[in-house]
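retry 2 of 3: previous attempt timed out while embedding iron/sulfur cluster. Reduced batch size to 1 and resubmitted. Inputs unchanged:
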Amino acid sequence: MSEAIRDTLSRPLASLRLSVTDRCNLRCRYCMPEDDYVWLPRAAILTFEELERLVRIFAGLGVHKVRLTGGEPLLRHDLPTLVRLIAGHPEVTDLAMTTNGLLLAKHAADLRAAGLKRVTVSLDTLRPERMLAFAKSARHADVLEGIAAARAAGFATLKLNTVVIRGFNDDELADLIEFARSRDAEVRFIEYMDVGGATRWTMDQVVSQREILEVLGRRYGPIEPLRDDARAPAERFRLPDGATFGIIASTTAPFCRTCDRSRLTADGTWLLCLYAAQGVDLREPLRRGTTDDELATLIRDTWRGRVDRGAEQRLAVVDRGVLYPSASLRADPHREMHTRGG
Ligand code: SAM
Ligand code: SF4
Ligand code: SF4
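retry 2 succeeded.
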């Protein structure tokens, strides 16, 4: 493969998160707490052919990891067809999806057959009544069914994402580890982030990596850090009894220095950072008839100028509060987490 394209901090262009829709069938309080939202116009949503073309260009520039996300990716009609198109590019060696699991039972086998390699299911609580209160959905059983279906479909790995929030689910850490163990999955605890959309965020609700380790250490005994991929957002740990889990400490110990990720929204806005205020519009040149080479040049040049390290910069903010008030999110929904993809 050709030499990686590197940004100003020498971080390679290697990983792309494709948000395939901004719609969602949950209303998690840390992501979509408002009563109503401004949606991307339908005509602006990239077709599968357009998405595949962009993935091909990104893959030609060194992207080998692609993760489908959203909004809820399984709300995008006929997602296995897109998976098949992307999986057809041999440069993409790691094709994964993050989903809330509500529709996974229905689609897991087709997605696997289409070439999806890995699945991450978001599971914040094992208690249906908490999900109802926190994500406005009574469909907890569907998520568990989705997890079982993913296991049965034979994905290489199954991860469970849990955003830990003080006073909501911070008493379920060990239960979630045990649940993951029983499903041959691995849980990753995520610190509550002050990303766009998290309009109820406050620092006192954040349960830090340190605190998570303390709580689990008291329950299980000494916890051993595992040294694996330094580029992966999760730090992994092993309990004395052998169970492993991860922590994504994006709020208290961000990992911007090794971040090789960028994001493409469903309408073709390319974001160099989860916290970036603006993105680069790739849809307009795509639909104007720009050649692949010209698009590749635009992407290459943009990445070479990348300076972003949003989460690290947030660390320096005194009296850290909400990143964007809801009026600013309504004015530009690209700033929403559910639009740019987690
Ligand atoms: N809807 C899918 C899901 O929930 O898995 C995919 C998109 S969602 C935006 C991707 C991930 O972002 C989820 O695991 C979710 O928990 C996480 N997320 C959303 N808002 C967050 C926040 N404020 N802090 C930390 N993680 C967040
Ligand atoms: Fe929850 Fe994911 Fe939907 Fe956000 S996009 S509300 S995290 S399910
Ligand atoms: Fe990467 Fe931005 Fe997240 Fe830092 S804040 S890890 S640069 S996406």
